[in-house]
Amino acid sequence: MARQQIVTLVILFCLAVARGFIGVVPTEPFNYSTQVDTNGSYLLFWKTNNTHITFEVHVKTHGYVGFGLSDNGKMYPADVVIGWVKDGVTHFKDYHTTAHAPPVVDKHQDWFLLHGEENNFGTVLKFVRKLDTCDKTEDKKIEVEPIITPGNEIHVHHIVVYRCRGIDPKFDKVHYNCYNGIPRGLRPCYDMIIAWAIGGNTFYYPDHVGFSVGAADDPDVYILETHYDNPALKSGVIDNSGLRITLTKNFRPYEADLIELGHQFDWKHIIPPFEKAYVTQAFCPSQCIDHVSMKREL
């Protein structure tokens, strides 16, 4: 038995040397490995089967170690783990990112620690997760119904809902004027996901389509704006209108999204005086399409 263990270690060591990882031996054979950085301070090993993927990282530090996966190659949205070893005890948690901001602890811990240690090289963490954790299917928005305060139908002009990434939770339940009172911390929030206007009815998604809400990489903050029309300057109007959003936990094969096209109507959109007709033209350049990752789908 002792001889077999020695032979195994020699084979693993030779494998590590052949791949440029001198002095670093993983805890078991792995099918794949790579050097993540340029100076060999972050080494990654991994393997898969039909249901799970296992990673092992060797990082030249005795501090904390971070590791993440994203489908766009960027810092967010990403599924992230952070771990470290202190006094022989390994600390390890599953996080996610939604912006260039500190990661947030996942409600569902889908990564599981298999091994952790500190050695002469640095810190070793070995962990596993399912190939499909179903993080994106926690809830699906399938129906949006306008709820207008009786008698205010002529005043409630339109309602929009924005989802906000990287917004400080302190802005939860903050009220503001839509045009000249937006708090500075909420100004980056312009990702519209629901739009209703006067005359509109309940909107139903097709049976095979849903809109992700509450998944690990979905935003935590949503803003509802109600815009009013009061040409007669009527006073004493009290309104409690809003939207009833129906969610389901049943997975739907296609996920919806929203794209806005056209010219933004604001103070920069000027119509010359005495014009009998005026045409506004808007263009969507290829850079815009590339930015929203729609080129492949189009």
Which descriptors would you attach to this protein?
elongated, Jelly Rolls, five-stranded antiparallel beta sheet, disordered N terminus, copper ion binding, Immunoglobulin-like, dopamine beta-monooxygenase activity, DOMON domain-containing protein, 2 domains, mainly beta, 298 residues, DOH_DOMON, disordered C terminus, signal
Write the layout of secondary structure elements.
Layout: H1 2-18, E1 32-35, E2 42-48, E3 52-59, E4 65-69, E5 78-86, E6 89-97, E7 104-105, E8 112-118, E9 123-130, E10 140-147, E11 156-164, E12 191-197, E13 203-204, E14 209-212, E15 221-228, E16 242-248, E17 254-255, H2 286-291
Parallel strand pairs: 14-17
Antiparallel strand pairs: 1-2, 2-3, 3-9, 4-5, 5-6, 6-7, 8-9, 10-13, 10-14, 10-16, 11-12, 11-15
CATH architecture of the largest domain: Sandwich
What is the number of independent domains? 2
* Overall 3D shape: elongated
CATH classification, class level of the largest domain: Mainly Beta
CATH topology annotation of the largest domain: Immunoglobulin-like
Summing up helix and strand content along with how strands pair, one would put the structural category as mainly beta
Number of separate strands? 17
Query: Looking across the biggest beta sheet, what order are the strands in?
Result: 1-2-3-9-8
State the end-to-end distance.
60 Å
User: Beta-strand level of the residues, as a percent range?
Assistant: 35-45%
- Give the averaged pLDDT, no decimals: 80
Evaluate the radius of gyration.
26 Å
Q: Which H/E pattern describes the elements?
A: HEEEEEEEEEEEEEEEEEH
Uncertain regions: pLDDT < 50 for 5+ in a row?
Answer: 1-20, 294-298
Described by its quaternary structure, the protein is single chain
Q: Outline the biggest β-sheet.
A: 5 strands, antiparallel
CATH superfamily of the largest domain: Cellobiose dehydrogenase, cytochrome domain
Helix content: under 10%
Total helical elements: 2
